[in-house]
Amino acid sequence: MKKGGRPEPGSSETPVVKVGVRDPLDVHVGQQLRRRRLALKIRLKKFSKDAGVSQKQIQRYESGENRTIARRLFDFARLLKVSPEYFFEGYGEPSSKSTYRRASHEEAAFAMGHASRESLALLRAFQKVESQAVRQEVLRMILDLEGM
Q: Is residue 136 part of a domain?
């Protein structure tokens, strides 16, 4: 063991983890969990009951204070109607407001029951249109088609 509590490179010793330091991945997964739960308007009490986990533990997962195991993540994904990969989306990628905005809109569409592949593809394509005038025209066309 090296000074500072770190194992020698290539050794099988477990590295020392600093108490109170949150892993960025755990924080990201927790934020995704909370964001999705809130997007679906699921109260903490109901979610914890459905998941079979205490409210305090859910709060610890959502804050990144505790790491969730794969099985529990799978259960959360099922309850929140997303794939387990959802919790890792965007991790390690450069942050951008447009990515966050797109995720928020997609979550809102899903929560409103508009999560078909076509509606999400339409939403993604619409968000890529930079011209406000073109966006307005597309919206008018869609609204006109709605009456058919």
A: no
Kindly report the pTM of this predicted structure. 0.55
**Cβ within 8 Å of residue 113, ≥6 positions away:** none
For the chain, how many structural domains are there in total?
1
Q: Residue 21: count other Cβ atoms within 10 Å of its Cβ.
A: 6
90 within a domain of the structure (yes/no): yes
- Categorize the per-residue pLDDT at 98 as very low, low, confident or very high, splitting at 50, 70 and 90: very low
